[in-house]
């Protein structure tokens, strides 16, 4: 049987494909197999105790259905990163749970802990050798295939192919497939920039040397960075995520990876979260390579890159340098992602730097202005990046260099970049508790 015959023999409707999922199964999903997910939701009454797992929380119609109370008992959903949407107002939820871990451990989680029975994925049309690329926004599904999960795949002709040595499956590994085209992906929407984002980006850009390799996380500052690195030369990319702000740097030649010793000449990422322009740019592009996330994000790998610069967002920090990036209090606003991977890796790299950026204060819905720099993190908050790993914290008032600094030096630096309205109070409390 040739590959096309195998393909045709495995073709099913979405409903027929998901009927292979049994009660009690653990199902991993990633990418955008929307037709398969919709079929699951439509058939929810036929399922009992199906446990669905994913790298990211779901958005759109699929997410709206999964997070509803009537799904309880039929399907539960657990992810590592909740979407920044109305979903976080549903936390906690009997049908929703979260596993907190760094992205460098995600594939290990799938292979060693979850060991899913079924994996739902989306892929590009099959090539002549029988391989189906999982695209550049894959959700780490390949790890589930490697542990023997039953493969159900949605073939989507609108998907952009990706140059990869890992994120693809062969038709012989597929149990069932359906053909359904999602709308052309738009990627994560860019957040509007304000003057604070621009100031923070300026402070960081001044400290990025020509020839550096950069990693950008999500957030307003990352969106702004592309505008402030346009005069740099010979930059490289080694990042968990390709963000939209990197598009112009790659297109203009500012990013050429010529000084990066690890995979010289190639931009390396784990997945793509950029817009359509960046997805088109990465389509069949041998100069953009998507590697196994466990390798891309591993601090031992990141630490091999001289002049590695990691730039990520955070929610709050205290005077000792502890940083919260995934929750304030007992709420939940996302996940750890790859922040700590790159904070640690960049810190260990020769001449490496990591920057954690935030606005100095936030205005609540009631109109109160609150400092994001406090004596201690708000009760219940998760300390995403420990104080001993953090190198630089940045607000619109400057950069606090805190790595290898004493407690008093840290407190002084943090107060200096706090909003002026709160500096006197922070100084008073720091003296009261012996930090100054």
Can you tag this structure with a few keywords?
Glutaconate Coenzyme A-transferase; 23% strand; 436 residues; 7-stranded parallel β-sheet; 9-stranded mixed β-sheet; 15 helices; alpha/beta
Q: Can you describe what's shown?
A:
By secondary structure, this protein is an alpha/beta fold. The protein folds into 2 domains: 3-179, Glutaconate Coenzyme A-transferase (3-Layer(aba) Sandwich), CATH 3.40.1080.10; 195-432, Glutaconate Coenzyme A-transferase. The chain has 15 helices and 23 strands. The chain has helices at residues 3-9, 14-18, 34-42, 60-66, 106-114, 142-146, 195-205, 220-228, 247-252, 276-282, 293-296, 299-302, 339-348, 407-416, 420-432; strands at 26-29, 50-56, 75-81, 96-98, 118-123, 131-133, 150-155, 163-164, 168-170, 174-179, 213-216, 236-242, 267-272, 288-290, 308-313, 316-318, 323-324, 353-357, 361-363, 369-371, 373-374, 392-395, 398-401. The strands form 5 sheets. The protein has a 9-stranded mixed beta sheet, with helices on both faces. Strands 4-3-2-1-5-7-10 form a 7-stranded parallel beta sheet, with helices on both faces. The longest helix is centred in the last third of the chain and has 13 residues, at 420-432. The protein is globular and about 75 Å long.
Total domain count: 2
Q: How many whole angstroms does the radius of gyration measure?
A: 22 Å
Helix run count: 15
Quaternary state of this entry equals: single chain
Q: What is the helix content?
A: 25-40%
Q: And the CATH topology of the largest domain?
A: Glutaconate Coenzyme A-transferase
Main sheet properties:
9 strands, mixed
């Amino acid at each position: 049987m040739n590959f096309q015959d195998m393909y045709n023999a495995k073709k099913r409707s979405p409903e027929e494909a998901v009927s292979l999922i049994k009660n009690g199964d653990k199902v991993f999903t990633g990418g955008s197999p929307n037709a398969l997910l919709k079929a699951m939701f439509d058939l929810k009454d036929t399922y009992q105790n199906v446990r669905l797992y994913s790298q990211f929380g779901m958005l759109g119609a699929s997410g709206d259905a999964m997070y509803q109370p009537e799904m309880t008992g039929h399907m539960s959903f657990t992810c590592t990163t909740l979407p920044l949407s109305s979903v976080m107002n549903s936390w906690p939820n009997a049908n929703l749970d979260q596993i907190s871990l760094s992205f460098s451990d995600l594939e290990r989680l799938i292979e060693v802990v979850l060991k899913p029975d079924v994996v739902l994925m989306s892929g590009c049309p099959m090539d002549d050798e029988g391989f189906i690329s999982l695209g550049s926004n894959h959700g780490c599904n390949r790890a589930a295939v490697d542990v023997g999960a039953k493969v159900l795949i949605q073939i989507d002709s609108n998907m952009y192919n990706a140059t990869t040595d890992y994120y693809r499956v062969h038709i012989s590994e597929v149990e069932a497939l359906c053909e359904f085209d999602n709308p052309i992906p738009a990627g994560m929407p860019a957040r509007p920039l304000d003057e604070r984002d621009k100031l923070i980006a300026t402070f960081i850009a001044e400290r990025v040397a020509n020839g550096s390799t950069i990693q950008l996380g999500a957030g307003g500052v990352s969106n702004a960075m592309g505008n402030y690195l346009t005069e740099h030369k010979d930059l490289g990319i080694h990042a968990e995520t390709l963000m939209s702000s990197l598009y112009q740097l790659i297109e203009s030649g500012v990013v050429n990876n010529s000084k990066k010793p690890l995979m010289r000449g190639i931009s390396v990422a784990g997945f793509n979260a950029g817009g359509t322009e960046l997805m088109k740019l990465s389509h069949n592009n041998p100069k953009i390579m998507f590697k196994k996330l466990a390798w891309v994000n591993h601090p031992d790998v990141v630490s091999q890159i001289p002049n590695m610069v990691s730039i990520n967002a955070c929610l709050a920090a205290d005077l000792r340098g502890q940083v919260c990036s995934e929750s304030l209090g007992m709420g939940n606003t996302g996940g750890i992602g790859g922040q700590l991977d790159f904070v640690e890796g960049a810190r260990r790299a020769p001449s490496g730097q990591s920057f954690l950026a935030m606005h100095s204060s936030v205005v609540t819905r009631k109109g109160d202005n609150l400092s994001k720099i406090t004596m201690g993190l708000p009760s219940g908050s998760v300390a995403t990046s420990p104080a001993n790993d953090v190198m630089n914290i940045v607000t619109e008032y400057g950069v606090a260099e805190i790595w290898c600094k004493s407690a008093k030096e840290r407190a002084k630096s943090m107060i200096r970049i706090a909003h002026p309205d709160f500096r006197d109070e922070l100084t008073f409390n720091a003296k009261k508790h012996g930090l100054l």
